[in-house]
Design a protein that fits this description.
Radius of gyration: 35 Å
Shape: globular
Strand order of the largest sheet: 6-5-7
Strand content: under 5%
Largest sheet: 3 strands, mixed
CATH architecture of the largest domain: Up-down Bundle
Number of helices: 19
CATH superfamily of the largest domain: Phosphatidic acid phosphatase type 2/haloperoxidase
């Protein structure tokens, strides 16, 4: 994982500030007792074996190898060149900010701080202040991109050396003149992409010699104080040995971006889709700088997902590290804002992005973010970057074991099986590059966490769940009350009954079923009350006989219902 070559020259006041804050900030080195997951980070090389279907390294970590799938690698080149050439100046500056790894001593910042823009205009500055002034020590010890127990959990160094693919800005042609100021280790005869010459020469996004049309983004000094209380030099370090000689796949910055991004999304699930999309933007900014390809970013996302699932599956770590940090951050932000996380976020402008000034990326869209739905669309697009499928479509869901724990704070009332079902129902299709569907590990490539963390889920009486929609606030709809099935009522069949004299008192009590003693619906009056009284004995006898007949018939009818 590459570390920025630029170091900050601080004045005395800044040094004093850093020293004061550093004293209160826990680091991974002095973090609490070891946790089971400390010793079980995922094997990134095994997770990313699908890359061998496109490129086969010669095994000597010298950036040379054999092109296996020229079509996929050509699209890889086309996308990064376009992004590098079409990013707006504002996006270039943000890309420089996102490239910095300088917050071990709180004098500058790293990706775990620049991700703050995902929180919107109200919460973002509060988060940055809390991280930089020492008010969030547990959160920093968790997220920090250099020292955090989750933010820096895995390293990509071994995987980079294993796959050993040259970065986009590294010349293909060994006769390309050196750039003044580059370190000797970056000399063209030592560092080049000559193995890709045949696949690049003659392409519209490359020069005649096969060099990709990549432009180096110039260094600047960040005086905005958006992420730091001091001025911060920003320099990609194209000519440093650590960058030019390092393999491109997978992206270390992207791995870190997703480690800190998924962590923050877990701490603040109310804003998870925006945070995850901002992490994808941090990854995308590696292409803006011309130092990574889209496949590198896809691999880095897989790394981050697998890493954090391993951490979150460690109950001791969750209980002693993750949950206290979540309590600390939520309490801090709500106290500073004066409301709930959701209410505070709604008070200001949401996270937004327009990286290319409205122009559409090859095989995709302009990737403009204005709200949650557009954030979800951009996140999902960046999962595949428009690559053609290389495997079978339409395969069954393939959720890796432990991935369900990435939704623990989004859906705390669901079971592991139910959270797994949510992930399965929100996955993208099978067959894209780096998809491991059908393997024992399952497919991290297909997990659409932005969709899963914005899902509305319907519970069923049998315990199953159905994803009703995505792109809103995560919610679980309770089991719908059962609708009683009406019991058919038999039609009474008239029967002959003997006329039997009955007592003159006919007022009957209810039978408990909504009907009176006569078998008629209680409508507020009883039959006997409406029979005229006659003084004549004959008339009375006739009336009583009629009434008795009616009652007999109705009792017979009621017995059949």
């Amino acid at each position: 994982m590459r570390r920025s070559s630029s170091r900050i020259t601080t004045i005395a006041a800044a040094t004093a500030f850093a020293a004061t804050v550093a004293l209160s900030l826990p680091t991974a080195a002095n973090a609490a007792p070891p946790y089971p997951s400390d010793d079980t980070p995922p094997d990134l090389i095994s997770l990313l074996q699908g890359y061998n279907s496109f490129w086969q390294s010669d095994g000597t970590n010298d950036l040379h190898g054999t092109v296996v799938d020229g079509k996929i690698l050509a699209f890889n080149d086309e996308v990064v060149t376009w992004v590098n050439n079409n990013a707006t100046p504002a996006q270039q500056k943000l890309a420089l900010q996102d490239s910095l790894y300088q917050n071990a001593d709180n004098t500058a910042f790293d990706q775990s701080i620049t991700v703050a823009t995902a929180l919107g205009s109200v919460l973002a500055p509060l988060f940055v202040d809390g991280r930089q002034n020492g008010d969030l020590p547990l959160t920093s010890a968790l997220m920090n991109s250099e020292t955090g127990t989750s933010g820096a959990y895995v390293s990509t160094n071994a995987a980079k050396g294993h796959f050993s693919y040259p970065r986009p800005y590294v010349p293909t042609d060994v006769t390309t003149p050196a750039v003044p100021g580059d370190e000797a280790a970056c000399a063209r005869d030592l560092v080049n992409g000559s193995s890709l010459t045949e696949n690049r020469v003659g392409k519209p996004y490359a020069a005649a010699d096969g060099n990709l049309d990549i432009t180096r983004v110039a260094p600047v000094v960040d005086t905005s104080h958006q992420f730091s209380p001091i001025d911060v030099p920003l320099d990609v370090g194209y000519g440093s040995a650590g960058l030019c000689t390092g393999g491109s796949f997978p992206s270390g910055h992207t791995t870190t971006a997703y480690q800190s991004g998924i962590t923050l999304a877990t701490l603040l699930p109310e804003l998870a889709p925006e945070i995850l999309t901002r992490a994808s933007e941090q990854a995308n900014n590696r292409m803006v700088l011309g130092v990574h390809y889209p496949l590198d970013l896809m691999g880095g996302r897989i790394d981050g997902e697998a890493a954090l699932a391993e951490r979150w599956s460690d109950e001791k770590y969750r209980t002693e590290v993750l949950e206290p940090a979540r309590t600390e951050l939520v309490d801090y932000l709500q106290a500073a804002c004066g409301g709930s996380i959701a209410d505070c976020a709604a008070q200001g402008a949401p996270y937004s992005s327009n990286p290319y000034g409205g122009k559409a990326i090859p095989g995709g869209t302009p990737q403009i973010v204005t709200d949650r739905l557009s954030a979800l669309a951009v996140y999902t697009e960046r999962m595949t970057y428009g690559f053609p499928k290389v495997g079978e479509s339409g395969q069954a869901p393939s959720v890796p074991e432990g991935a369900e724990n990435l939704l623990l704070t989004t859906f705390p009332t669901l079971t592991d099986a139910q959270r797994t079902s949510v992930l399965a129902q929100t996955e993208i299709d099978s067959g894209f590059a780096l998809d491991d569907t059908g393997t024992a590990t399952g497919s991290w490539q297909r997990l659409d966490l932005a969709a899963a963390t914005s899902a509305t889920v319907q519970l069923a009486a049998d315990g199953s769940v159905s994803v009703v929609s995505v792109g809103g606030s995560a919610a679980v709809l309770p089991v719908a009350p059962a609708t009683p099935t009406p019991t058919p009522t038999a039609t009474p069949t008239p029967t002959a009954a003997p006329v039997t004299p009955v007592p003159t008192s006919t007022a009957g009590g209810g039978n408990g079923s909504g009907t009176g003693g006569s078998g008629l619906a209680n409508t507020g009056s009883d039959v006997a009350a409406v029979v005229p009284f006659s003084a004549g004995a004959l008339a009375l006898g006739i009336v009583l006989a009629v009434v008795a007949g009616l009652r007999s018939r109705r009792r017979a009818g009621a017995a059949k219902r």
